Amino acid sequence: MFELDVRSRRPIYEQLTDKIKELILYGILRSDEQLPSVRTLSAQLTVNPNTIQKAYRELEREGYIYSRPGKGSFVSPAQQGTNAAKKAEVREELLRLMAEAVYLGFTEAEIGELFKQTSEKKGEEDQP
């Protein structure tokens, strides 16, 4: 389920956080789906349980997951437009990436096609 690069300069908990976000955004992990327990994931990845806990806390803080005492951690339902700060952060990152893409020679059509591919993929995930 997860692949972590132990030789990377990025902390393991950040890699794990990003991977879980990606799985949620691509619809692989769905709303209210239970995540592996800290102990289980720690054993699977051979990572300290505190690292897994730190990643889960960060995801919960950002609103991607929620926890139920005694039950575990679950994927939060999508909340369209409720997190203005996160939306502003993503917008800034997109502007930075788009400026880099334009600098590297991407055309408006190529960028539009990437948006279209992302939208189509999201539409497929929403299908039953």
UniProtKB/TrEMBL annotation:
Q: Which domain of life is it from?
A: Bacteria
Q: Which UniProt keywords apply?
A: DNA-binding, Transcription, Transcription regulation
> Per its UniProt record, what PROSITE patterns does this chain match?
HTH_GNTR
Q: Which GO terms describe its molecular function?
A: DNA binding; DNA-binding transcription factor activity
Q: Sorted alphabetically, which Pfam families does this protein's record hold?
A: GntR
Q: Which SMART domains match?
A: HTH_GNTR
Q: Read off the InterPro entries from this record.
A: Tscrpt_reg_HTH_GntR, WH-like_DNA-bd_sf, WH_DNA-bd_sf
Q: Which residues form the HTH gntR-type domain?
A: 10-78
The answer, when asked if Secreted is one of the entry's keywords, is no
Please name the PANTHER family in this protein's record.
Answer: HTH-TYPE TRANSCRIPTIONAL REPRESSOR YTRA
Protein name in UniProt: Transcriptional regulator
